[in-house]
Design brief:
This protein is of the alpha+beta class and 69 residues long. It is 68% helix and 17% strand. It is built from two helices and two strands, in the order αββα. The chain has a two-stranded antiparallel sheet. Strand 1 and strand 2 form a beta hairpin. The longest helix has 28 residues. The radius of gyration is 17 Å and the shape is flat. The model has no long low-confidence stretch (mean pLDDT 84).
Length: 69
């Protein structure tokens, strides 16, 4: 296994441990909406959105380096 694979595996395991420990129901308010959901679902969604946003930003930076202007 490469160092990158080990790093990603450790991060995924740590994220799963944190998610499994947080199973209470929480109330989420956003402007006029009020949603009750399990904290594990909320944290998982936020984590997924963060990874997607990070991937998009990193992907766009690498594209800009390829262009001459």
């Amino acid at each position: 296994m490469s160092k990158t694979q080990i790093f990603v595996t450790v991060i995924v395991i740590l994220c799963l441990i944190v998610l499994i420990q947080n199973t209470e129901v929480v109330e989420f308010r956003f402007f006029f909406w009020q949603v009750e959901m399990s904290r594990i679902i909320m944290m998982g969604l936020v984590l997924l959105i963060g990874f997607i946003f990070g991937y998009i930003v990193a992907h766009n930076k690498s594209k800009k380096k390829d262009k001459p202007f």
